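Good morning,

Attaching, inline, the backbone tokens for the sequence recovery test we're adding to the shared suite. The designed sequence is right after.
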């Protein structure tokens, strides 16, 4: 059993590490654009990739789960020791590429709503449910990453997560750095248990991370996709907006709260998706000269298909987790969260780093 601590590690990638990562992502892209496209392709060649446009949604989900398991396994075996949760990123990349190969959300707006505000609200509710299904696909890839790392890589290595955040780690990724080890019901099966002295403070920090990431991402997405004049839906704009929104959300949350893995930040992705589509259900139809245009949604969240939103959101979260450094935890925030900290620890955290002193020799030149 592995005992874990509260901080994460920023890794230094060598050239060979970057090549292995590119190889893993290339394999994922090849699988999803070939075999994956045959599994999730819509019935209409011009249609968007969605459960609503597939002739057999249940079969589509089963095939997507199987492909995600294979892709996550291969990516973890190829580059799982370079960065944590590589398998999740590979699956998210594959899903995003398949969504780009299909049509945009305009197809759903025209064929299923056609300018009717009531039908558009019903569509938003269906998309919220579909977002949870694609979240399940990423959840499976998360579990697969942990299982492969536990049984085929360095899962038995000792944890060194208590090291300083400013230091770059060069050792292989440890099991305790994966998101699956913070997932309830999964961590114990992987042989990972949290410290008995601080499970509550870690969960509180995780929930705060989820909340801050979700709020920032929701606000940033609306800012990035909205404009004074409504524009047609484009894949590039939507994917970029989602990635940038969650990257910003993770960046801000990491400035205040330290989490060991990306689990709590990934949890914000389906929350924002469901809340965004639910807001579209209750939104009022916009008036004006653009009200009758079926290809312009009444909510900005209807510009993204569920598969694109979930996949791009996970990519933004993991990219930020890999790039952005953690700040040392603020002692006041730790105390507010209920974490144990003695007076000696508090003084040590606020004590300036000692300067090196050099003894002067008595000899003069």
């Amino acid at each position: 059993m592995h005992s874990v601590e509260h901080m994460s590690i920023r890794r230094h990638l060598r050239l060979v590490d970057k090549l292995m990562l590119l190889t893993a992502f290339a394999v994922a892209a090849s699988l999803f654009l070939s075999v994956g496209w045959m599994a999730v392709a819509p019935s209409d060649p011009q249609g968007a990739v969605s459960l609503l446009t597939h002739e057999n949604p249940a079969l589509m989900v089963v095939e997507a789960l199987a492909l995600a398991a294979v892709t996550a396994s291969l990516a973890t075996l190829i580059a799982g020791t370079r960065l944590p949760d590589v398998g999740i990123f590979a699956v998210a990349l594959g899903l995003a590429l398949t969504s780009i190969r299909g049509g945009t959300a305009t197809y759903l707006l025209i064929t299923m709503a056609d300018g009717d505000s009531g039908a558009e609200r019903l569509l938003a509710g269906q998309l919220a449910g579909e977002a949870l299904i694609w979240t399940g696909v990423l959840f499976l890839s998360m579990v697969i990453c942990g299982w492969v790392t536990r049984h085929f890589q360095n899962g038995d290595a000792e944890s060194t997560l208590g090291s300083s955040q400013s230091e770059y780690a060069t050792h292989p990724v440890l099991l305790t750095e994966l998101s699956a080890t913070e997932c309830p019901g999964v961590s114990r099966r992987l042989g990972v248990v949290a410290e008995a002295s601080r499970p509550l403070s870690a969960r509180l920090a995780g929930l705060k991370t989820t909340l801050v990431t979700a709020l920032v991402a929701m606000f940033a997405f609306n800012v990035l996709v909205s404009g004074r004049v409504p524009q047609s839906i484009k894949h590039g704009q939507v994917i970029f907006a989602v990635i940038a929104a969650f990257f910003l959300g993770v960046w801000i949350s990491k400035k205040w709260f330290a989490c060991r893995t990306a689990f709590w930040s990934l949890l914000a992705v389906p929350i924002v998706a469901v809340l965004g589509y639910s807001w579209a259900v209750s939104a009022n139809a916009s008036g004006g000269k653009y009200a009758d245009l079926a290809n312009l949604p009444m909510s900005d969240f209807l510009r993204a298909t569920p598969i694109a939103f979930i996949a791009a959101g996970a990519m933004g979260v993991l990219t930020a987790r890999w790039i952005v450094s953690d700040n040392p935890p603020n002692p006041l925030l730790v105390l507010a969260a209920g974490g144990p900290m003695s007076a000696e620890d508090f003084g040590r955290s606020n004590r300036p780093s000692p300067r090196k002193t050099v003894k002067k020799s008595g000899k003069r030149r």
